[in-house]
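REQUEST ID: PR-0412
SUBMITTED BY: lab tech R.K.
PRIORITY: routine
TASK: structure prediction, single protein chain
INPUT:
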Amino acid sequence: MIQPYGTNVVTAEGKQWQFHYRITAPPFNEGNNRLNWSETLRQTQSLSDAWSRHCLRDLHLDIHSLTLNIISCAGFGLRQEWVNETIGNHESIPDGHSMGFLQAITTVVKHIVPILLLPTKLMLYTPLRNGAMAYLEFERYMRAVIDTEKRKVDANADYENLDSRGNLLTAMLKVSASEARNTPGDTKPTKKTTFSDDEILGNAFMFFLAGYDTTANSMIYGCICLALYDDLQDRVIEEIDRVYEESEKAGRTHLSYEEDYPKLTYTLCFMVSSALPPAPNKSPSLLTDFPNAISRSS
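STATUS: complete
OUTPUT:
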């Protein structure tokens, strides 16, 4: 059921799961962590700049846009620039497409249940037509990216996407190609050794689906807790300020994944702890005025 684009590591079983795991596990490494770190810094700076220019923002939309931009780069190798307005309003649409990439992928997530349950052709003749169109558009975008990256990997085993070195899609293609190259050419393989395009697309989409909404919602809840609980906010800000000062003393102009991330122990505990503060019984206006709520301690 959970394979809108093809068999993936979530839906596979037995030996087929072992095959999928063998190719999808290696991309989750320090290279991808480093890319997530650098792209998060870049995108968060853009969000901070937008908040400084527009006092009243929608926290829900902004954090979802932030998460989407980061995962687009770290997951698919597609670097996005920050757009102040709601996703899709001012996104450029390439020739031959009916919607932009970001709009397509967010619409797919919004309609994921009917996409999984209903035939796409049927959805095209219902009020769910927009979800079906987004499903088809996202597939077209991704197949074009897969085709481009695959040709580059086939031509050069050491190929790296310079704009998104360590992204999951390219790394998965490299592992798949390596499995095929390591199979002797003069013998008939006894087991499958490489992913089909459908399997690449299926796994890439599951990477996104598993990380996008959960990450965005965790950050939204964390931001609200920081705005409501002064002691938590003060400790997080104190730790971040200290790490920035130590980084500047060491001669670094930007925070480093290798040097600075391990020092953010309290901030990490705050985000991953199961003992986060209870859901706040406060005004929902925090969702639209979060920057003003937290700026008092900045």
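NOTES: The radius of gyration is 21 Å.
REVIEWED BY: pending
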